[in-house]
Write a structure and sequence with these properties.
The chain contains four helices and no strands. The protein is mostly helical. It has one domain (2-73).
Length: 74
């Protein structure tokens, strides 16, 4: 069980944190958001993946801008 939790944490960190972000904004567990992405991807032939990648790109840009602002303040 401990190995499964370690693998899950590794995958969550490397998956851009999109599910966590959406889950926090909607007040839903991130595991539920991941499950809905899987269901929607199967039902709509993968179109939610485009949305997922867009949000991942947006979150990375947002994180980059935030880090640059902190550096400029110092």
């Amino acid at each position: 069980m401990k190995r499964f939790v370690h693998i899950q944490n590794l995958l969550e960190r490397s998956a851009f944190g999109v599910s966590d972000y959406i889950g926090d904004k909607l007040g839903v567990a991130s595991s539920r958001v991941r499950l809905y992405f899987i269901y929607l991807s199967c039902a709509t032939f993968g179109s939610p993946i485009i949305f997922y990648l867009f949000v991942a790109f947006w979150l990375n840009i947002k994180r980059y801008i935030h880090e640059k602002r902190l550096i400029l303040r110092d």
